[in-house]
Structures are given as C-alpha cells and as structure tokens.
From TrEMBL:
Catalytic activities: (R)-pantoate + NADP(+) = 2-dehydropantoate + NADPH + H(+)
Enzyme Commission number: 1.1.1.169
Stated name of the protein: 2-dehydropantoate 2-reductase
Domain of life from the UniProt record: Bacteria
Leading EC class: oxidoreductase
Organism: Shewanella xiamenensis
Function according to Swiss-Prot or TrEMBL: Catalyzes the NADPH-dependent reduction of ketopantoate into pantoic acid.
Keyword Calcium: no
UniProt KW keywords: NADP, Oxidoreductase, Pantothenate biosynthesis
Length: 327
C-alpha cells in the first residue's frame, strides 16, 4: 500500500507517538507527523538526566526541499519534549527510534522497563543488526523495521532542512503487529511511504546500496559519482556477490542483477553527493560500518562463510577512523 490520500481522524491528542533521537531523521519524521496532526513528542539525548518538567515544549524549524531556498519556506512548529520517566512514557503507543544504528541498544535499553507492555517499537536507521539484539529484550512488545531514502540535514540543534525526497518502507518484524490506525496514520503522514509485507528483503536491498557506496566513497574521499569509474567495479561486484550469498544463507533470496543495477542507478542519481560515511569520516564522527559491511561479515561468520571484501572494507574504515577520530 503506497501512502494515503484521505486524512484519517486522529483519535486522541494525548502524545501517543514518541520519537527517540532528535537528530536529522528524528526531526524530519517529527515534522511530518506533527504536520499531519498526529500527537507526537521527542525524546532527546538528555531527557533522562535533565530537569525537564513532565512536558516541556520545544520550538523547531523545518525547511522543505525547495528550489528557491527562500527563508520564508521554513516552517516553525512546536512539539513536546518528553522526559524519560515512567509515568510519562506509559502513554506512548508507538516509539520510533531514529538514532544511528550503533546507538540503538544504548538508547532504547533504559526505556524498555518504563514503556507500556503494549508499546510498539519501530526502528528507522541505516544498516542492520540492532533488530536481532533488540528482539529478545522486547518482553512481548511488537517490533517493526523501516528504511527511508529521504535526505535531511541538521542545520542547528532544532533546525533541519530536507535535502532529498525518497521512498520510506516500513514493515513488521516480530511480536504483535502495529495497530492498524497507527500504521495508517504513519503512511498518511510520511510522503511516499509504503507498508511492505516482507521488510527484511527491503533492508538487505538498502544494505547493498550502502555497503557498495559508503565505504568506498569514505576511503577514496570522493563523491558517489566517482564510483562509476571502472577501477571500482570489481570491488563493488565482490561486495554484492558476498552479500547475496550471505543473505541466501539467511533465507533471503536477492536478485544479484537487480541489486547491481540499483547500486549504479544510485551512483548516477546521487553523483554529486557525499555519502553519510564519507561525511562521518570527514567530520571525525563514528561511522555505521559495523552495521553495514560489518553486518554482512557477522552473518557470514554465523554461516561459516567468507566475506573477505566486506571484511576488508570494515578494517580499512576502522583504520581510517582510528586516525581521524579524536581520542
Ligand atoms: N540524515 C539523513 O539524510 C538520513 C537519511 C536516511 C537514513 N539515515 C539514517 O538514519 C539514522 C539516523 O541518522 P541521523 O542523520 O538522523 O543521525 P543524527 O542526526 O546523528 O541523529 C541521531 C540523534 O539521536 C540522538 N541520540 C543518540 N543516542 C541517544 C540516546 N541515548 N537518547 C536520546 N537521543 C540519542 C543523537 O544525539 P547526539 O547527537 O547527542 O548523539 C542525535 O540527535 C542513521 O542510521 C542514518 O544512517 C539518515
């Protein structure tokens, strides 16, 4: 099902959707849900230690994708900042986790015993792996997973600018299903979004694009378009061969030819862009390499397979990060 044309009645104005992680994607989704009239709040980094009242309100600015770049295009809005205390989190029916893949478990772990047993969790990050670590911790709660190709840039703490449109795919992973009303509201609020019956193959497909493009652009300090050069084709082919083989052993059949086409289409369409891993390395930040090529290596190990090219990407990025990350 792709999107919804008709606004749905919003049943309650009590904040029943919380977004964990008030970064670029968190603020984008927050804006989209808030504009659709949904009762959404943000859980920011310092919610557990700050002296927030039960509800503080935060002013945010969202700049849509616009050719004119006019300041007047920006939209100001305000949403509740939720404190991470039990009384406050009990009303949350859906927690959308928008932190980096390597932050998921540390971010959600301390909240789990404060959320209601019915609260559904949706992970929305690049890379794979946290879902496997989180599933045994859920205590009967439902878990959905998603991936988005929307682009968003954080301009200051509470200001983001949309840099690209793209498909958002959501789907069920384990436990009770996301209630239909919440699912319909999400699809209505997030442009170009769809609910897929099998989300894991979609995540592998997105992983293929990230595994092929991210480490190479970071290592060679180049924009995505440079990867169209013939010198990279063997490495990209090998990354994809290993990924398809490992996924097959995980029970996921991927079309190798389709994946390669998709990778080169993204390289062409985003030729001038710098990948998130390139930017993370350039800005001395941790990368998501462990959840991208590292996930392929982890699953390869689980099946006693070799994933030598992906392992090479992981160690090369870690070496680069060891040089660039502040100690
Ligand atoms: N940006 C994009 O265009 C884009 C597009 C598609 C997918 N993605 C993916 O979406 C995910 C999120 O990316 P992003 O760009 O939104 O990253 P981001 O801007 O770094 O946002 C993550 C936010 O989560 C916060 N956070 C981390 N740990 C937390 C905790 N324990 N409690 C509360 N908040 C916590 C971070 O705070 P600190 O800054 O203090 O750590 C940060 O504000 C990544 O997997 C990324 O690859 C991004």
């Amino acid at each position: 099902m792709l999107g919804q044309d008709v606004p749905l009645a919003i049943e309650s104005q009590a904040t029943n959707i919380a977004i964990l992680g008030a970064g670029a994607v968190g603020q984008l989704i927050c804006h989209q849900l808030s504009s659709a009239g949904l009762a959404v709040g943000l859980i920011a980094r310092d919610s557990s230690v700050s002296n927030l009242e039960a509800t503080d309100w935060q002013d945010l600015v969202f700049s849509p994708l616009s050719p004119s770049d006019a300041v007047t295009d920006s939209v100001s809005y305000r949403v509740p900042l939720l404190s991470a205390d039990k009384a406050h989190l009990q009303q949350v029916q859906l927690l959308i986790v928008c932190v980096k893949a390597y932050q998921v478990i540390d971010a959600i772990g301390p909240l789990l015993n404060k959320l209601s047993p019915q609260c559904h969790i949706l992970l929305l990050h690049n890379g794979m792996g946290p879902h496997l670590a989180l599933a045994p911790m859920l205590n009967g709660r439902g878990l959905s997973l998603g991936t988005t190709s929307q682009g968003i840039l954080r301009q200051s703490c509470w200001q983001v600018k949309q840099t690209g449109q793209g498909l958002t795919q959501l789907g069920h992973f384990t436990g009770p299903a996301l209630p239909q009303t919440l699912r319909d509201n999400l699809l209505y609020a997030i442009p170009n979004s769809e609910w897929v019956e099998a989300i894991i193959p979609c995540l592998w497909q997105k992983l293929a694009v990230n595994a092929a493009i991210n480490p190479l652009t970071a290592l060679h300090q180049c924009p995505n378009g440079a990867l169209a050069q013939a010198e990279f084709s063997d490495t990209i082919a090998s990354i994809l061969d290993e990924l398809v083989d490992v996924a097959a052993h995980d029970g996921i059949e991927l079309d190798r030819h389709f994946l390669e086409e998709r990778v080169y289409r993204v390289i062409e369409l985003t030729a001038a862009n710098f990948s998130s891993m390139h930017q993370d390395v350039a800005n001395y930040r941790l990368t998501e390499i462990d959840q991208i090529n590292g996930y392929i290596c982890d699953r390869a190990n689980a099946h006693s397979l070799s994933a030598a090219t992906n392992a090479k990407m992981v160690s090369a990025i870690k070496q680069l990060s060891a040089i660039t990350l502040p100690r």
